[in-house]
Design brief:
The chain has helices at 6-14, 37-51, 56-59, 80-97, 106-125, 129-143, 280-316, 325-347, 361-371, 374-386, 388-391, 398-401, 407-414, 421-435, 450-460, 463-473; strands at 20-22, 25-26, 60-62, 69-71, 147-150, 173-178, 181-192, 199-202, 217-222, 228-232, 256-267, 271-274, 350-351, 357-358. The protein is of the alpha+beta class and 485 residues long. It folds into two domains: 11-281, Butyryl-CoA Dehydrogenase, subunit A, domain 2 (Beta Barrel); 290-463, Up-down Bundle (Butyryl-CoA Dehydrogenase, subunit A, domain 3). It has a six-stranded mixed β-sheet with strand order 2-1-10-11-7-6, with no helix packed on it. The chain has a four-stranded mixed β-sheet with strand order 5-8-9-12. The termini are far apart. Flavin-adenine dinucleotide (FAD) binds at residues 102, 106, 149-152, 155, 158-159, 190-192, 256, 442, 445-449, 451-452.
């Protein structure tokens, strides 16, 4: 059966070769290690949700390839409703975990993107990438894999193209093409949810020209493939994950990682693009359209939890939540803005000839700019409602809270509203985690920087046409030329 339980998912991660490091230590078991167990728990909740009668309809679907019931995050999204379900699932996952579950997102999106692009490459060049991808998707669906998506390269000097970099390894590249596969070298950085993933879907990080054809590669690798070393990044307050108590009050979390590929062999059947540089633009276009339409739901879901946390803080401080009604409503408006703008972009989308649904680019990229902006205002409001206790997490640590000598005093002075000191402390730490701690998902640059999205909005907005419309309305018959042209 393609639907996996939490137990089967955890067992599949335990089987992988240990190749993840943090603070100089090799992580032997990602499901129990203090730095990775929370990200695994977050993803495991999607497997629970797939078996919960209340959420199964959202977390599962029918495979368009086999007719079997599968995890939604392994599916091809062939209709508007399918992509909307992706959005709704993201919002629900944030409500269940408080943060990002990247292994249920970028790899799924990459798989759908390549379904369209391999179809186009095969048609133009007579390759067999689409069939290879189909075979891998069948495996992914049957195994119920969690799949990270890796696009971002180390890049090197941002003013230079990949082929001009003094160190060519700064962008993942093909070192050797063999009959049976490829040898690749380089790095992908800041990749979400890798420790919770079974597989990694690798895509080009940008559009490439002929001089950079060695960088035009799309493939999938098992997370524990030989030659791949994974180094976890730091996040705010991550050493608290090793502490006891409630200074991180949640059991969930998110991680990002550096992926170092040292001459990794990728078998041919797992390669979906090899030097066809002319199609890299299409990959970026489709990937970002789906991603930036759906990411509005992520920040909306985290915003929902921020509304809840702010209400808990108001009450724990001894104030009715309604004191802050106007601020709570503004938070809700921010959430619904990014969520529904994404839904609108999906509704305005169209079906690719390969069968997948692609959201409208202009509105998806416009949404990305809101996603990089509005959640910061929501966080500010959440902190304003909570008070100094949440602004910097400004109260003693759990260890001091339970200290035999002065813990009672800490608790006495933490107590405020109609709840225990511990409940107020937990609500405050949750708010801190959501707004400036390890729970912050990274909505500014995650999914691409907002300036890149602005460039697309500028390119797709018919501004000259709008100037003509305005001219006509104003009764102007003469030309008003652009000065300096
Ligand atoms: C929390 C988090 C999660 C992430 N998860 C993933 C993931 O799962 N998978 C993945 O592939 N990536 C992931 N990323 C990486 C993310 O996609 C990148 O951060 C993003 O694409 C921006 O790249 P960068 O960080 O290298 O920024 P930079 O390229 O260093 O850009 C910095 C700034 O400079 C601007 N800039 C860059 N180059 C130029 C130029 N030539 N001219 C003018 N301006 C320029 C940018 O617009 C930006 O404002 C994640 C990032 C974060 C923070």
């Amino acid at each position: 059966m393609a639907l996996k339980t939490r137990r089967e998912y955890l067992a599949s991660l335990k089987k992988l070769r240990p190749n993840i490091y943090k603070f100089g230590q090799k992580i032997e078991d990602v499901t129990t290690n203090s730095f990775t167990r929370r990200v695994v728990e977050s993803h495991a909740r999607a497997y629970d949700a797939a078996h919960d009668p209340d959420s199964a309809a959202l977390f599962t679907t029918t495979s368009t390839l086999t007719g079997e019931k599968i995890h939604r995050h392994n599916s091809l999204m062939t209709s508007m409703e399918d992509v909307m379900a992706n959005s709704k699932m993201k919002r629900r996952m944030y409500q269940l975990t408080g943060t990002c579950t990247g292994g249920l997102c970028a790899g799924w999106n990459a798989m759908n993107t390549m379904w369209a692009v391999t179809f186009e490459v095969d048609k133009a060049q007579g390759t067999d990438y689409h069939e290879r991808l189909k075979n891998w998707i069948l495996q992914a669906q049957s195994a119920g894999w969690t799949i990270a998506g890796a696009l971002t390269d180390a890049k090197g000097n941002r003013s230079l193209k990949a082929a001009q970099q003094p160190d060519l390894d700064t962008n993942l590249r093909i070192i050797e093409e063999r009959k049976d596969g490829l040898i690749i070298r380089g790095a992908k950085l800041m990749i979400c949810g890798v420790a919770a993933s079974n597989e990694i879907f690798v895509l080009p990080g940008t559009t490439y020209g002929e001089a950079e054809k060695d960088f035009a590669i799309a493939c999938v690798v098992p997370r524990d493939i030989e030659g791949l070393t994974i180094i976890e990044t730091r996040r705010p307050s991550d050493t608290r994950e090793q502490e006891e108590g409630f200074d991180i009050p949640v059991e969930t979390g998110i991680t990002q990682a550096y992926l170092i590929f040292e001459d990794v062999f990728v078998p041919k059947e797992r390669v979906f693009l090899c030097r066809e540089f002319a199609f890299t633009g299409k990959i970026i276009q489709i990937f970002t359209s789906i991603y930036r339409a759906c990411i509005g739901a992520c920040v909306a879901g985290q915003g929902d939890i921020m509304i809840g946390a702010a209400m808990l803080m108001a009450r724990a401080n001894g104030l009715p939540a309604r004191t802050f009604s106007a601020k709570l409503v503004d938070m809700a408006i921010n959430n619904e803005t990014t969520f529904t703008m994404g839904i609108g972009s999906i509704a305005l989308g169209s079906k690719h000839p390969a069968g997948i649904w692609v959201p409208d680019s202009l509105t998806a990229h416009a949404n990305k700019v809101h996603v990089a902006t509005l959640p910061y205002e929501t966080k500010r409001l959440c902190q304003e409602i909570g008070g100094g206790i949440v602004e910097t997490g400004c109260f003693p640590a759990y260890r001091d809270f339970i200290d035999p000598q002065y813990g009672k005093m800490v608790q006495k002075y933490l107590k405020a509203g109609p709840c225990s000191a511990e409940a107020r402390a937990r609500a405050a730490r949750l708010t801190e985690w959501l707004t400036l701690g390890a729970g912050v998902p990274g909505c500014m640059h995650g999914g691409g920087s907002p300036d890149g999205a602005r460039l697309v909005v500028r390119a797709l907005t018919p501004m000259e046409k709008y100037a003509e419309m305005a001219k006509k309305l104003a009764g102007i018959t003469e030309e008003i030329p652009e000065p300096g042209k």
